[in-house]
Amino acid sequence: xxxxxxxxxxxxxxxxxxxxxxxxxxxxxxxxxxxxxxxxxxxxxxxxxxxxxxxxxxxxxxxxxxxxxxxxxxxxxxxxxxxxxxxxxxxxxxxxxxxxxxxxxxxxxxxxxxxxxxxxxxxxxxxxxxxxxxxxxxxxxxxxxxxxxxxxxxxxxxxxxxxxxxxxxxxxxxxxxxxxxxxxxxxxxxxxxxxxxxxxxxxxxxxxxxxxxxxxxxxxxxxxxxxxxxxxxxxxxxxxxxxxxxxxxxxxxxxxxxxxxxxxxxxxxxxxxxxxxxxxxxxxxxxxxxxxxxxxxxxxxxxxxxxxxxxxxxxxxxxxxxxxxxxxxxxxxxxxxxxxxxxxxxxxxxxxxxxxxxxxxxxxxxxxxxxxxxxxxxxxxxxxxxxxxxxxxxxxxxxxxx
Length: 402
Prior knowledge:
Blueprint: H1 2-9, H2 12-17, H3 20-24, E1 31-32, H4 47-59, H5 74-87, E2 91-95, H6 98-109, E3 115-119, H7 124-133, E4 136-140, H8 145-158, E5 170-175, E6 177-178, E7 183-184, H9 187-197, E8 200-204, H10 219-223, E9 232-236, E10 246-250, H11 252-261, H12 263-266, H13 273-287, H14 294-315, E11 328-334, H15 338-348, E12 351-352, E13 354-356, E14 366-371, H16 378-394
């Protein structure tokens, strides 16, 4: 069946090189340093999995309907209430896809006559949402509150192009953790700019929710900021919660408005029951509402692993980007030719990594993006570091040494 499908799209000589045998003929046990499984909930055993299986047997693998029709069951409502409580907002709404959460929410929030000011390194889902909105878009230098204030001030003075009328609203969009840099948003300074100029603030917490802060409640928890100072908190269930989909959390009036205006709520198939149950149960565990301290242990383990691995890479001579406590740890390769070399050497040694190059990064800023997990043991990481030290010599990667 696979080969027959390929033959429609590919010449016969291509079929020989990607036959089913070549794709599935081998296995290799690897230490995974590339997963978004930050808190280690992506497990094939345990109480959460049993509850997910029970939910699937009761409701099936899909509700085959949008939330606006027949695609809402109790676990959807329960999760929305729990998310709102977790992040400190009045209400929340669930989407079936993380990318779609951003790309369909932003056009519902802003449009013609509005201004969006976006961080230069925001995710493509945010960029697409801005472009689809019809609002005017300006960019400020990455994670630079001083430049953000300059852009905001100039925009207010100049007003809308040609007409010079005041903007209807100004929306600032940032991320909690930037996934290619491992940097944490300078939220306190950005909130100060937002308040000074009466802007609105949208924070994408895809990588920070569940992974940052004493209680894993994201970038607000990390900095000790009041969630009320952020108008829109967006997050996904695809990382720390080991599921799919995303959410928007805000004041109740904003959520009620978005339920009827966001195309993601109106047209997309609702989140599958099993995936929804996984997100719900993981969230209960993180909050300690499952009657255990497993969530607290996972949060601490992730932080310890992230900081240990970052410091060990620096000691090994790698040039490492990002901030302490971030589970995303990028190390620089720079030369494009080192991208496949590093990946293959790691695979040969039993390590799975993600290497990133152009166009995801500038041409000469290729990098490895390590992602740490609470499931990693200290023994795992110590062995991985020993391999990284050897590779640093083999591939000449000690850029961090003077």
